[in-house]
Amino acid sequence: MIEETGEYEFDFMDEQRDLIEGQCYQAAEYIGENLKRWGRVNVMQYKEKFLTVRCYCSLGFFEIFHGLIYPGYCWIQWPRWMHSIDIFLGCYLSPLVNLFVVPYQKWLYRYLYKKAYKKFPLLKDRLIGFADFPELLKGIGTSS
Q1: What ranges do the domains of the chain cover?
Q2: Which pTM was predicted?
């Protein structure tokens, strides 16, 4: 159960602990890699932590070209002058691009969590309880 403190209560001697831990990592990897591949979402990290699924990401673009070509990379892959141009253009183009990109990324975020919820039935609240955007995931556990 999730307590008021936000930490997940579990027993270290639970027989299914290893299975749940492996499925948590598989679910995090499934969500994180598909968000990067299909939505070009900036996924900073995905992992299993305290038998819960964690996928740290941000929706939308600020640096247009770097975000499209290298989503999730903190290290800039280009020379400084190209990065400066990307930031300059991003100041003007990102609000327009994000009008179309962010709704798609929100839909994809919800869709992937819903598929992961069906794919890994042992996880239940471990999957949705600690999501970055819980407001996008309302009703996933109750509807089919």
Answers
A1: 17-137
A2: 0.80
